[in-house]
Give the backbone structure.
Amino acid sequence: MPSAKKKTTTANASPERRRELLNTAAEVFAAQGYNATTVRRIADEAGMLAGSLYYHFDSKESMLDEILSTFLTELWDGYDAVLAAGLGPRETIEALVTESFREIDRHRAAVAIYQKEARHLSAQPRFRYLADSQQKFEKAWLGTLERGVADGVFRADLDIRLTYRFVRDTVWIAASWYRPGGRHSPEEIARQYLSMVLDGIALSA
Amino acid sequence: MPSAKKKTTTANASPERRRELLNTAAEVFAAQGYNATTVRRIADEAGMLAGSLYYHFDSKESMLDEILSTFLTELWDGYDAVLAAGLGPRETIEALVTESFREIDRHRAAVAIYQKEARHLSAQPRFRYLADSQQKFEKAWLGTLERGVADGVFRADLDIRLTYRFVRDTVWIAASWYRPGGRHSPEEIARQYLSMVLDGIALSA
Amino acid sequence: MPSAKKKTTTANASPERRRELLNTAAEVFAAQGYNATTVRRIADEAGMLAGSLYYHFDSKESMLDEILSTFLTELWDGYDAVLAAGLGPRETIEALVTESFREIDRHRAAVAIYQKEARHLSAQPRFRYLADSQQKFEKAWLGTLERGVADGVFRADLDIRLTYRFVRDTVWIAASWYRPGGRHSPEEIARQYLSMVLDGIALSA
Amino acid sequence: MPSAKKKTTTANASPERRRELLNTAAEVFAAQGYNATTVRRIADEAGMLAGSLYYHFDSKESMLDEILSTFLTELWDGYDAVLAAGLGPRETIEALVTESFREIDRHRAAVAIYQKEARHLSAQPRFRYLADSQQKFEKAWLGTLERGVADGVFRADLDIRLTYRFVRDTVWIAASWYRPGGRHSPEEIARQYLSMVLDGIALSA
DNA sequence: CATGAATGAGAATTCATTCAT
DNA sequence: GATGAATGAATTCTCATTCAT
């Protein structure tokens, strides 16, 4: 899933400094969009000059790459654990959603970037792993939903792909407004979302 | 809601040509993102040279402006009609959602652009109308949901703002995958979405 | 002194229309500078579209050319008459200055353009006649001043080239503030200028 | 009188380098006119690429701005000293003229630019200080002339505004031909100019 | 590690000019 | 005579990136 080999240049610098700088970069990318973000803006935010960032990273693109791949790696650590747990379909969905909100909590900026940029990035070879992840993601969710329909846990009258998109988007789009440390914990938000997704917002007559 | 008058300069050119070019531009903006789209790319797509676009439009930004303001104007024509119809909360939600999917069908590209760019654009004075629209939008939906809770039509145990975001995002994010002329008509998609949002995807025991 | 041959294209159009358009162009050139003036601005002022000017003129440059050469032709008609009249040095200076203010009155815009642009234009072959005129001009004035010094009419203690520049500039720079139809007639201004140049502004003790 | 603060962007770069580059730019502006000068031409002259200038300056316009405002600041330092010295009208004129030729000597390019461009620049808010300076200038000179007429030092039979323009133009236009390091020192030129302006070029009978 | 100064490849935009209608 | 629509070259400006110090 990670990306191309770094030039010998980079990968110096203490890991903590890298992490810091990547957080800064991610925050700016998320706020302004990757393309609209200048390297200088990131450097300003980090209290250094633009050129100095190149001691730590090969390129602007490799910052983006590292932000996204780090996030996806952690995300799949969580997802894989859930999927391996042998839960029933409903419980799997619940666990995946909860895990997702935890990731949003931990990687809000990365998630926001992912959502804005993934589509056009995944065309580039360097970011093929985004498409791969997307596919693996789809397989996991679609499979769970299908299993749920087969088990009579989910409604059978819904278009399954539409439902998949509905649930997927419903969860991730939350990154666009979520602010860590706000009123609701990720788990609380997950609970409410699950309640809406599973049972709807209407009062059942 | 639309934006400033163009200099006498522009606004020449037959309206049909403008419309054509704006459609082309919107398509490219939606596919690549506004910032990542070069004026030359649009011109290529339109079969002309980059400079020639400036006979029709003041700037790349004013193309974006016209795309978004045209879309929002039409959107609010539809919404205002619904809101003025005196429907009950549930029927209002149904009508708004259906209207939204119709707009996605008609202005897919504009909606996609809106979603990617609105947040950082609305800081600029020229695009303040985006924020205004957002606010009006929020008022309409929140009001309807509250009315619905008061009337016992919607569940009272959910955080109302969370619910608002849930419903709002749930609908509009569809623009990111929707393709006009596909398997489902907007009305069909609206029906399925409403079914999920209102009643949930779980089989009620 | 006039300039390059026109392409067959041009020189159509009634002479009066040309004259009108050239006056318009001259006014704009004078106000904004030649380079800063767009063909469209001229066309706007003339109530037509930019492209339409090309029915009347080959190019923006040829408008400038015609404006300047027309002015210089008329100027030299006047100057040559004065110089051929066989006047004494002081009377010659008086007549040249008066004639100059008449030209400023008649061709204010052209004079202003001449002053701003002549220096760098005269490098181009097309505008060599500007340099030629300048030289002829210098010969006439310098000669008159020298004659005046020799005759004991002008002070001998002044650097003659400095004096030439002083008188020359003193007169022509007036075009930068002169407005035809103002308080003073050209002849009145000439009289005052002559009085200052010849006798100074100090009260002779 | 100087202009707006630069963005943090610029204003880096050692002051000496800025000074150098501004001198280069001023020279080119003076020779070709501001509009006709391309940024690339300046960069060529400075031995760098066009884009590199933007490390030092925000824009072509801000170079112009800095050139003019620096010049005016220094000019007024000199003028204010003269005006504060409590001299009589004739001595004030003499001192102002001498000071002016010194400024022409020091800032020939800036003065030439000022003369070609001031009029249309002063319409722009950024260059309002040009108009302000012009006004202050007029007040100083007109006042001195009036005082001189009242004191019987200057002729009363001349139109005072005409006289003002005469003296003003007579001095500054010299920047268009003056070359520092030439035959005459600024003080020598000032002496000759003053002699002409005050006493005229004619031999008093 | 960081700075200062530059590079160089575009980017948006302008504008004189052309030409079919 | 004029218009509408374009061309294409030039221009200002931006920005990721490099590199000597």
In short: Chain C has a mean pLDDT of 91. Residues 12-13, 17, 48-49, 51-52, 55-56 of chain C lie near DNA strand F (CB under 10 Å from a C1'). Chains C and A do not touch (no CB pair under 8 Å).
